[in-house]
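Per your request, structure below.
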């Protein structure tokens, strides 16, 4: 009969069965028992009767969890434990219950335990019933066995709802202290804990992290594994989490938007673990670090991660006992004595232990003692040992033996190993190799790749011999095929160096042809973006960057264009720079591939705010092309268009205009006047240059023509059409035609969101312009919400010092000034000014404009003298940069006149106001808002100096014209009628 009082149950488990022990402990406690889980490792415990005395001294029943450890004993240890059980069970058998949690068959020695109840393969409720019945535990009041699975540990057979972790390595052993430290760090740190597992290559960081995930995954609802050794692939991996979470990205730029969507979703979730495996530079992965009530685990060889995580746990080599245990599990041929000698030969290095034990297991007739001796002597068996600081002689000897064995006994596996050595080791692109065209593969590989059984057999042998990790996936007709393969970087480099020159040349050439076959040749099509993300890590190891083959170079250029379109400018700069360096060493400066790569490099430099470097590159390219008698029109246009964009960013607007006018005329003549994309792009850039020069009417005329042509060419929803509409509305706003601008921009923003998504860079600019239109129209509340949201998203995309983020921050500061939040406005404005000065130099017009904004806020805060001094500095800087006739110089003059008036220098204010009013009329006309505001300010200063009649006349005319532009109750008109001092604030411009 079941006991009426709480039944004490001691749960005895090995370390790797922690999740089972925890779940059982929770279920027994729920059923009213008094469970106590005790970790006990029979593999490291001598098989003697006295070893069980401590456990038997506990009251109640003993529940033994039999896992893979119990089926891995060597025959001697297995028989010894069988003898112990035969002596124990007649006396204590009524207290002992054994359950099996392994899928493997139990050895005959387990028969001494009597009936062993299997729990694997049962669901949670049935497993609980089996346990409670065997332990004679009855739930309170005979209640149901089932409980709320959303609370407490998960049943170990149930995977987390979202889980992409690598398969569990059943041969994993050791690392108990490290795993306990990791679990303790996460448990004591609580929600939001970040730890890094650090160690040199080959020490087992990935395998230890995998073991941690599988051992403790019952604590998590989400487990997400990111291959972090290559930044671009890491971003792709992390972005896939958004799909699993059902987090809708508010962006048409799928990668960046999906990353942000996943991070937002994690902030609202609990019980998650994200693993960044193989992380190198933390600066490259900063945007992938999630925040919220979950855990982050990083595996890395780098010490710099201490600034990004709360704790670093170092992973040492195996201790000797771990080495011996691991080797015996890896190969049944190894006795504990031979495993000990093998461990001594390879100095307990985990990677070498894995690969040498694998070699022993694969070569069933090999002399183990002779093999260990060759490793100790440093003889790689017919392969000379080349002294190397990277590999100890034990590595070279062991790996040389492995490679030679494959060459002699398993030629198919060897051929694949030779090829795989010229791809990135982190994830060998098996799918790309299998999908390569027959003509791209040498004859001896064609039949191997196209015959599934030969292919899978070769991969299996390769995995067994070299400890490469295989992951399987469901293939056609439900056939299991190998999905991914990973090679350790140290072994990868050894194999490359081991190959002869001709072998290496052929393997590298084949690898490059695989990439050529994989290129969809459409980097602008987002359908193909995952393919380009897959290809990029393999460009360097295949030698694609150093190839002179046009097809191979086309792959490189397509990958660069993909990075540019995706906004991955840092990676784009690295890749284009590497291509330029490699290709200019072997090809003429005017080679078409070189010119495209250089053009892209200048693009990336400009996008990253490295304008002087972009200018140097752009001018050099244009000089080279124009000097080449065989130049093509497209090359010239591309060079002029790129340099023009850099010149605009540098504030050299007039030179940019002249360059664009020349390019526009050439494009129209050579390519066509209307509905030609390149001509329209250049014409649109010319319109921007005119706008930057303050020639707003001319700019508007061109922008409207470009918009009409794009509508005719591509329709109203094409991204280029939407961009042209955005620029049209922007220019209308600068002309003071706020109603027209607002009407266009409302529609433009809605279409941007529908077509590109809410977080696309172009959409954020459209949202920002809508906010600026609303601000000028007096709708400050809605403007603030839109502008703040756009700025926050832009900051997440690029960081605070990116040109577009600075533009949004500067404008947001002045909106905050409008609504009286002066402290935050001042902080943002000063930060923008400092960033512009660092980015562009103190002579750039943006620096003067940002300083003028700071002066406005400073005056509002009561520092009138300081505001006047900074206003005068800003005006002088703007005039030096652009001349006195430029509309921005006129705006600075208006603000300086205000600052002078506020500090009592009324005559100087009047004189400057008159001069600025004349310049405004010449620049933007009599009816422009800037002109009328200048007139209103001058009227105030005239009245203060006693010139009341002139003041009244000037004010009356300004009010009349402003009312004609708007209506009497419009904010602009009421502002003037209320006698408030007009102002001009600087707006950085969209390019």
């Amino acid at each position: 009969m079941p006991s009426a009082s709480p039944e004490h149950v001691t749960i005895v488990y090995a370390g790797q069965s922690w999740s089972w022990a925890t779940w059982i402990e929770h279920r027994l406690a729920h059923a009213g028992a008094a469970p106590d889980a005790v970790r006990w490792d029979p593999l490291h415990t001598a098989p003697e009767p006295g070893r069980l005395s401590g456990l038997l001294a506990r009251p109640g029943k003993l529940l033994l969890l039999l896992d893979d450890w119990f089926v891995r004993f060597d025959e001697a240890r297995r028989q010894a434990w069988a003898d112990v059980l035969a002596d124990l069970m007649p006396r204590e058998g009524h207290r002992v219950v054994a359950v099996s949690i392994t899928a493997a068959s139990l050895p005959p020695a387990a028969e001494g335990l009597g009936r062993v109840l299997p729990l694997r393969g049962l669901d949670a409720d049935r497993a609980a019933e089996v346990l409670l019945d065997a332990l004679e535990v009855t739930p309170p009041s005979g209640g149901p066995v089932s409980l709320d699975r959303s609370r407490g540990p998960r049943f170990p057979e149930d995977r987390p709802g979202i889980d992409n972790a690598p398969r569990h390595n059943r041969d994993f052993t050791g690392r108990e202290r490290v795993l306990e430290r990791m679990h303790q760090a996460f448990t004591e740190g609580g929600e939001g804990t970040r730890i890094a597992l650090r160690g040199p290559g080959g020490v087992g960081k990935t395998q230890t992290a995998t073991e941690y995930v599988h051992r403790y995954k019952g604590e998590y609802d989400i487990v997400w594994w990111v291959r972090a050794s290559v930044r671009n692939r890491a971003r792709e991996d992390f972005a896939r989490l958004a799909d699993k979470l059902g987090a809708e990205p508010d962006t048409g730029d799928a990668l960046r938007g999906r990353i942000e969507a996943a991070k937002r979703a994690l902030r609202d979730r609990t019980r998650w673990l994200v693993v960044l495996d193989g992380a190198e530079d933390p600066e490259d992965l900063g945007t992938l670090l999630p925040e919220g009530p979950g855990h982050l685990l990083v595996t890395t060889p780098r010490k710099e991660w201490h600034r990004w995580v709360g704790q670093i746990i170092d992973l040492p080599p195996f201790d000797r006992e771990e080495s011996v245990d691991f080797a015996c599990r890896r190969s049944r041929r190894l006795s504990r004595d031979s495993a000990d000698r093998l461990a001594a030969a390879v100095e307990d290095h985990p990677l070498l232990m894995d690969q040498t034990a694998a070699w022993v297991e694969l070569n069933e007739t090999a002399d183990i003692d002779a093999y260990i001796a060759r490793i100790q002597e440093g003889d790689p068996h017919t392969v000379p040992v080349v002294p190397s600081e990277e590999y100890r002689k034990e590595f070279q000897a062991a790996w040389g033996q492995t490679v030679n064995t494959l060459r002699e006994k398993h030629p198919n596996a060897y051929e694949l190993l030779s090829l795989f050595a010229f791809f990135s080791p982190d994830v060998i692109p098996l799918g790309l190799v299998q999908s390569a065209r027959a003509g791209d593969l040498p004859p001896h590989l064609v039949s191997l790749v196209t015959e599934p059984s030969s292919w899978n057999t070769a991969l299996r042998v390769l995995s067994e011999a070299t400890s490469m990790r295989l992951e399987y996936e469901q293939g056609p007709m439900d056939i299991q095929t190998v999905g991914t393969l990973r090679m350790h970087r140290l072994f990868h480099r050894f194999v490359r160096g081991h190959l002869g020159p001709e072998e290496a040349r052929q393997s590298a050439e084949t690898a490059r042809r695989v990439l050529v076959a994989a290129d969809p040749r459409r980097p602008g099509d987002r359908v193909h973006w995952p393919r380009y993300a897959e290809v990029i890590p393999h460009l360097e190891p295949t030698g694609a960057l150093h190839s002179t083959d046009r097809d191979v170079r086309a792959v490189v250029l397509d990958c660069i264009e993909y990075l540019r379109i995706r906004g991955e400018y840092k990676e784009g700069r690295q890749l284009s720079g590497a291509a330029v360096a490699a290709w200019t060493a072997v090809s003429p400066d005017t080679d078409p591939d070189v010119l495209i790569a250089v053009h892209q490099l200048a693009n990336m430099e400009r996008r990253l705010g490295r304008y002087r470097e972009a200018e140097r590159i752009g001018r050099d390219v244009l000089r080279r092309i124009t000097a080449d008698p065989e130049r093509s029109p497209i090359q010239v246009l591309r060079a002029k268009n790129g340099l023009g964009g850099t010149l605009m960013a540098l504030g050299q607007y007039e030179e940019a205009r002249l360059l664009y006018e020349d390019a526009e005329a050439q494009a129209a003549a050579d390519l066509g006047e209307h509905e030609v994309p390149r001509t329209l792009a250049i014409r649109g850039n010319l319109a921007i240059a005119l706008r930057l020069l303050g020639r707003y009417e001319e700019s508007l005329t061109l922008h409207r023509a470009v918009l009409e042509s794009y509508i005719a060419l591509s329709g109203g929803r094409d991204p280029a059409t939407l961009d042209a509409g955005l620029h049209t509305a922007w220019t209308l706003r600068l002309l003071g035609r706020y109603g027209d601008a607002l009407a266009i921009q409302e529609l433009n923003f809605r279409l941007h969101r529908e077509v590109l998504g809410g977080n696309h860079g172009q959409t954020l600019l459209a949202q920002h312009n809508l906010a600026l239109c609303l601000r000028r129209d007096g709708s400050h509340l809605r403007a603030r919400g839109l502008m703040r949201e756009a700025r926050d998203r832009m900051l997440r995309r690029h960081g605070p010092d990116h040109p577009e983020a600075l533009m949004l921050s500067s404008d947001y500061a002045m909106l905050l000034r409008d609504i009286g939040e002066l402290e935050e406005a001042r902080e943002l404005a000063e930060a923008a000014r400092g960033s512009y000065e660092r980015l562009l130099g103190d002579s750039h017009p943006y620096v003067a404009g940002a300083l003028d904004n700071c002066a406005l806020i400073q005056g509002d805060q009561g520092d009138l003298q300081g505001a006047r001094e900074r206003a005068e500095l800003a005006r002088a800087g703007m005039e030096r940069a652009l001349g006195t006739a430029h509309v921005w110089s006129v705006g600075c003059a208006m603000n300086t006149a205000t600052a002078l008036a506020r500090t009592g220098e009324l005559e100087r204010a009047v004189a400057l106001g008159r001069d600025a009013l004349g310049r405004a009329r010449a620049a933007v006309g009599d009816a422009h808002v800037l002109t009328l505001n200048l007139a209103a300010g001058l009227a105030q200063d005239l009245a203060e100096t006693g010139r009341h009649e002139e003041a009244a006349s000037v004010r009356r005319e300004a009010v009349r014209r402003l009312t004609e532009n708007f209506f009497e109750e419009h904010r602009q008109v009421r502002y003037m009628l209320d006698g408030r001092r007009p102002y001009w604030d600087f707006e950085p411009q969209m390019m």
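The longest helix spans residues 696-714.

Regards,
D.
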